[in-house]
Fold this protein.
Amino acid sequence: MSIAATRMVPVWVVVPPRCLLLDVAGPVEVLRRANIEQQQWRFEVHYAAARSRLPSSSGLQLAQLRPLPAKLPDDAVVLVSGNVDDVYFAEAPPRTQDAADEARIIDWLRTRLRPSHQLLSICSGALLAARAGLLDGRACTTHFSCLDELRALAPAARVMDNRLFVEDGNCWSSAGVTAGIDLLLHWLSRLAGPACTLAVARQLVIYLRRSGNDPQLSPWLEGRNHVHPAVHRVQDAIAAAPQQEWNLAALARGANTSPRHLSRLFNEHTGMSLPDYVNRLRVSLARELLQTTRLDMERVAERSGFGSARQLRRAWSRSHEATPQQARKSGEG
């Protein structure tokens, strides 16, 4: 059997003045580890800035930064880091210099990025993308402290609150700091697959909100792209035992809220109702049982939390074209 050729992916990390160091180091570490975990994709990381030497948010000097390239390959990935105002070191350049450097980056983004490029903005990097006009008509997000500024800079964009990251075509954006790692893991899963992503996450000691045995990122990650702690607690409880008889009142007590308020919060932050979320996890559990056991349909339905095989088939049909029996025979689950 022939081995697939390695595909090189050029990644240009745009480093702004007063760069937030973790906005660079976190996402790039995902790519570095991905290069170790698999061979199909090779991520070539380049660092570019308006100047060859810049201090970072922690005072560490970043040196040998490349100039912003005059031309990008058609398949280039451009990762725009965020920056900070509250620097804690004495060698920071004058703000007039910073403003000029930012203007050069914005002009470069505006004139060099094309639809074939993938744009990943981390934290307040979305503000630079907005000033370049790249977020117009897009759904996007940024650090919670920058949301109002992003709305002012990109009135034609759909700025979303309480999101770890937002995907809109070839333009992806993340909330602050460590959410850049979440964004890169999600992006990596699209390219290199869930097995590679899980291996990288384990090495980085990052908790992916999914079943460790499920071969797909969805539905265990579906509806988890938010930052509301009470809703996450409810989702964690359901994901731990989707086959359990879940009671709205009990879940609301665990979330320290009323049943009515929990239903509203769940819809608002996950984009689905609580019953829909439970059913999607139960269908996924049923799929796993179909793949790994020879249980008949009634037993599969019972073990995955459905009252009958008929109820399982009805829920299954909402997300699968093939019937459960057809999926078992084909081995697709």
